[in-house]
Amino acid sequence: MILEVNNLQVNYGAIKAVKGISFYVNEGEIVTLIGANGAGKTTTLRAISGLERVHTGTVKFKGEDITNIAPHKIVGMGLTHVPEGRRIFTNLTVMENLRMAALLVKDKGEISKSFDEVFELFPRLKERRTQSTLTLSGGEQQMLAVGRAIVTGGDLVVLDEPSMGLAPMIVDEIFNVILRLNKEGATILLNEQNAYMALSIADRAYVLETGNITLEGTGKDLLDNPAVQDAYLGS
Amino acid sequence: MKYKEAGLVTFLQLLVYGLQLGSIYALLAIGYTMVFGIIRMINMAHGDFLMIGSYAVYFLVSIFFADQMIGPAIALLVVMIAAGITGMIGVGVERIAYKPLRKRSTISTMIAAIGVSLFTQNFFRAIPAIGPNPRMGPKLLVDKLFFIGPVQLSMARIIVIILSLIIMAILYAVVMNTKIGIQMRAVSCDKDASSLMGADVNRVISTTFFIGAGLAAISGAFYANSYPVLTVTMGATLGNKAFIAAVIGGIGDIRGAVLGGYIMGVIEIMISAVYSELAYGFSFVALIIILLFKPEGLLGKPMVEKV
Q1: Mean of the pLDDT values across residues B242-265?
Q2: Residues B38-56: what's their mean pLDDT?
Q3: Where in the sequence is the domain holding B147, given as residue range(s)?
Q4: What total number of domains does chain B contain?
Q5: A91 in reach of chain B (CB within 8 A)
Q6: Which is it for the CA torsion A59, A61, A64, A68, positive or negative?
């Protein structure tokens, strides 16, 4: 198990956003959390990365307890988080965004290799590498967000709503890159509103409803599950 | 000499004075703008770092050197040590007074900053070695006057201008090209995302305060060299003017702070030459006029309030 979440509870003031959930991710897997808006998916991921304070419960990464550790330390251990809404540094150029992502990578050769990889995967970023990121489209911003994760290069890559607000073609492109990252050895934990897309690539999945896990199973099982079809697949 | 020529000579001399005062404002304004850029806070106590810096120079010189004229190399070293000390004080102030309020409203941190300013001034006044009476600041540089054509120039002023420009160029290069510079810009845009790339946000903010307070100290040392009267409240007025400079240039933008600083310095000296009582007031007039036409400041980008 690369990630083990035990009885995780996160509060925003008096509101319990995540009400004691437990799940795990095995090395090499693609695991997805699906659920409606406000189900607690983003809060769960933010708590794992140290951005939200964990009220009770524990998060273990590679066997080590990382509950309530500062985010930058968790990144250093190999957990990379692509946040919801892309969160590009709009005051930096494309290249500077990638350099920022390479902050913890010591080996210069490795950095330039990962830059090349990003530009090979997303040629459009290469054309725009010295430009301000304000001029990027939503799709290009998401490419850059995923590109940053490639440069940071974690063993577990956590992606929060990578398809949000993107055209279908670009969603395919992003998902192909996620699959490729997984083939290259990264474990993936994915939050997705596009449940069909997420379940079709996931090894296992969890359904979150108002802060609780209500269903779990393999991606295929959940795709075939009538309740899931009703609530999330719109069929 | 013809009347017109005499006017030009005076203008050039005033311009040098203006640029020198502008350098002092610019160095001080950078701290306002950097702190605002990174934590969206107006550090009302920033001017007091200038005061701390000039006293630090004063004590370093009076403790370690009998003679005030210590030569340029040692003078520079003294100023750098004073900047380091003040920088550390800046880091401490942020840790103790501002960091606990980071998630609170802007008004809370601003009131905290006013508190820090009042505390600093009164604390320094209470130290017997400083006390309420003004001190004569040390003369670090022997001033030589020289002529270029009919224009009489002061060596010390020229040195202050050149040194300030070098320091600001180095700072700009650091912010644009180094790892810590990119982190500072990234943190000013998005703290959460920066920490997800492995940036230690607290350390980046501390570094920003260190640089800001250090530059304020250098600015204080330069100020005291030309206007050698040290008081515990000297930072307040200068701080206000530098703050105006930062706003004129577009707060959050380092180049804007420099531009604003020089505009303020030159305007103040030129107006003083006509009628000295008007100078401070006219700074505000300049501020109002510029903000009327460009509310985000000369180099500032229009800010969108994020919801």
Answers
A1: 95
A2: 95
A3: 12-233
A4: 1
A5: yes
A6: negative
Residues with Cβ within 8 Å of A102's Cβ and at least 6 positions away in sequence, in order, are A111, A114, A115, A151, A152
d(CA A55, CA A19): 10
Task: Find the DSSP H helices in A103-224.
Answer: 108-121, 123-127, 138-152, 168-183, 195-201, 219-224
pLDDT on residue B103: 87
- The torsion angles phi and psi of A183, rounded to 5 degrees, stand at -65, -35
Q: Which of A103, A108, A148 to mutate to test the interface with B (most CBs of B within 10 A)?
A: A103
What's the pLDDT band for B168 if we cut at 50, 70, 90?
very high
As beta bridge partners, residue B171 has: none
Residue B283 belongs to some domain of the structure? no
The C-alpha atoms of residue B223 and residue B230 are separated, in whole angstroms, by 10
Which ipTM score applies to this complex?
A: 0.93
Which one, of B234, B250, B220, lies nearest residue B33 by Cα?
A: B250
pLDDT of residue B284: 86
Identify the helix (H) or strand (E) that includes residue A24: strand A15-25
Q: One-letter amino acid identity for A186?
A: A
Q: State the CATH architecture for A3-87+135-233.
A: 3-Layer(aba) Sandwich (3.40)
Tell me the chain A residues in contact with residue B199 when contact means C-beta distances shorter than 8 Å.
72, 100, 103
Handedness of CA B191, A27, A151, A103 (dihedral sign): positive
Sign for the pseudo-dihedral over CA of B40, B42, B45, B46? positive
Cα–Cα nearest to A141, from A129, A152, A149, A133: A133
B306 — pLDDT class (breaks 50, 70, 90): very low
Residue B307 has pLDDT above 50, yes or no: no
Q: Which of B227, B231, B52, B62 is nearest to B132 (CA)?
A: B231
B198 → closest Cβ in A72, A83, A87: A72
What is the value of pTM for the model shown? 0.92
DSSP B7-45: HHHHHHHHHHHHHHHHHHHHHHHHHHHHHHHHH----TT
- Residue A141, chain B, CB below 8 Å: the answer is no
Rounded-to-integer distance, Cα A177 and Cα B269, Å: 61
Strands A156-160, A187-192: pairing is parallel
Residue of B nearest to A88 (CA): B193
Q: Is residue B240 part of a domain?
A: no
| A70 interaction partners in chain B (CB closer than 8 Å) | 195, 200
